[in-house]
Each structure stands twice: as C-alpha cells, then as structure tokens.
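re: ur question from earlier - yeah i can do the single chain one, its not a big deal. heres the input i used so u can compare w yours
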Amino acid sequence: MDVYKLIVLIITKWFIAQLQCGP
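and the output i got, formated as tokens:
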C-alpha cells in the first residue's frame, strides 16, 4: 500500500470530520 495515499486518506477523513463538527 502506498504510504502517500494512506496519509492523504487520513487527512481527508480528518478534514471532513472537522467540517461536520462545524465552527
């Protein structure tokens, strides 16, 4: 598994979670 893709996936999930939490 590509480490870069794994990191991007984690960041994407974290970013989406932040958006769902709201301000």
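The chain is about 85% helix and 0% strand. not sure if urs matches, ping me
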